Amino acid sequence: MKLINQKKWLIFGVVAILLAWRIIVVNMAQHLAAEGSPAALAWGPNTPQVLLSQAAVIASSDTKRARAITEDAVFYNPASGNGFLMLAGLLELEGNLALAKSAAKMAHFLAPRDADVQLPLGAFWLRQGLPVQALSHWGTAIESNSALSKTLFPVILQIVNAPQSRLAAADALARAPYWWDGFFMYALKNTTQEDTLKAIYLARNDKVNHDQRGAYIDHLLEVGDYTDAYFVWLNGLQAGQLAALGNVYDGGFEQVLDGAGFGWQPNLSKGFMLAAEPSYGHSGKKALHVAFQQRLTSRDLVRQFLMLDAGKYRLVGKSRLESLEAGKGLRWDITCADVDGRAQLVSTAHFIGSDSWNKFEAEFVVPPEKCEVQTLRLLLNAGSNYEDTAFSGSAWFDDLEIVKVD
Amino acid sequence: MKMSKRAVTILAASAVFVSQVVVAATVATPVKLTQVQGDVMVNNGSRFVKAVSGTELKPGAKIVTAKSSNVSLVYQNGCVKQLKQNTMHTVGTAEQCAANIGKERTYVAALGDTSLVIPANNVIINPVIIGFVGALGTVVATQSNNDNNNNNISAE
């Protein structure tokens, strides 16, 4: 009995030593292969990783032999995405494109989320003239390793910039998860082609986030694409917000002052408070409230882009002043906001002091030229002789409208 | 041939009368909206309201169609103006409709070809990405333990 036990332990020991040796050999071989050391071959001549390293070294000088070595590697580990990727590249170098494509598909099948396989796979399909397929692989690579976006975004942008692939590429990108936002902002900064931005934006459309939409609208206004800016903004409005559309959007200040597009854009600088709040004596639930606590320089307090056709109009609104002391006072002002036209169209009298709800109005004419888009602004005129004046009190505004005058 | 003073006066008066009738007809003629689909907004002065089929507008009124929305404008002379999605249109006269002129701003889709295949050399690719041997060398060097672990890489 004792002898049997001893034999069992002996067999176990031998197996354990063999396994340990094998583990050491394989890991040493892989480690050395990863470091590119020729010693890897001595440790594990049949280790797939070692074979692939060996094939990579001679790929361009002796493609045929490299392929034979790679086939060995695939034989030893048929589940290796890297092996099939290497095989695809070597077959491509040999001109056997049909087999190369099959190997590439196999590599994707075996390593569908591996950034290090997906990245070269994208390049492979791009070389085959299939940029959209390349985008799909690069998208996966970015999802697995977001740091790759720095390298891949410029390449992806080139693909979308090409008119031949623009629409299909933008469509493929639209399915991207979180990194679409980053790519769109990258494209906004780096492309000179408006059609590229439009294609990327429209493909995503309903899923575009508030920040990206706002940045795109700002860009369109900056380059003078006012109509596009207006419709990008309009199509981003919710049903309840559509009801606030007018020559002035939300002149009753019932919506959130979110600063986007053709809505109210509050100045976010410090030193005063500006908000849509409930008060008394006005229509609706809220009115615009501006309150001062410290001395300020002249500035816009809130503004809105308008899309008025040429013609005669009347700006009307209501104001209430609560001991307002703010330099020369506040005034509403409308100017042309075209890239090449900034003419002032009208300015109201200054609001200062105390007053109950009162109606104000001012007529103006929008000229037919260089005034496709306009800006309505509430301005603080700090004046030049008001250095010693305290800034305090507040003003309320409501029911702002611009009426076409026949 | 000489015309009498009276004949000239009658002719002039008739011409003025006819032109006034024409102008009056032009200005007063309402335009009817039909086939309203989606978010179609009309502005008759200062506010936009949602349009419904049968709404009558005067020249000068503004119409805005949002995405996936369209509407037809039927003038009394039978002219029909169709507005597609993403259009801002100022209603004109029946004559302007017939002559197909008027003020309109439209947001059009991006331009591009439908052909998908482009030669790879049209795109300047970073050599790090496209270089096969270099890329594979990198792959082999960095992938020593990843072969059987392909689904474990998490996004950073």
Structure in words:
The complex is a heterodimer of chains A (406) and B (156). Chain A contains 15 helices and 10 strands. In chain A, the strands form 2 sheets. A 5-stranded antiparallel β-sheet of chain A has the order 1-4-9-6-7, with no helix packed on it. The N and C termini of chain A lie far apart (116 Å). Chain B is α+β, with helices and mostly antiparallel strands and 156 residues long. In chain B, the strands form 2 sheets. A 5-stranded antiparallel β-sheet of chain B has the order 3-2-5-8-9, with no helix packed on it. In chain B, β2 and β3 form a beta hairpin. The C terminus of chain B is likely disordered.
Alpha-carbon distance between the termini of chain B?
97 Å
Kindly report the greatest chain-chain contact and the residue count on each side.
A-B, 89 and 62 residues
- State the order of secondary-structure elements of chain A, H for helix, E for strand: HHHHHHHHHHHHHHHEEEEEEEEEE
Order of helices and strands of chain B: HEEEEEEEEHEHH
Total of helices of chain A: 15
Give the tally of β-strands of chain A: 10
Give the N-terminus to C-terminus distance of chain A in angstroms. 116 Å
Secondary structure category of chain A: alpha+beta
The whole-number mean of residue pLDDT values of chain B reads 69
- Strand proportion of chain B: 15-25%
| Fraction of residues in helix of chain B | 25-40%
Strand content of chain A: 15-25%
The average pLDDT value of chain A, as a whole number, equals: 90
Shape verdict of chain A: elongated
Outline the biggest β-sheet of chain B.
Answer: 5 strands, antiparallel
Q: Round the Cα radius of gyration of chain A to an integer and report it.
A: 34 Å
Instruction: Give the % helix of chain A.
Output: 40-55%
Biggest pleated sheet of chain A: 5 strands, antiparallel
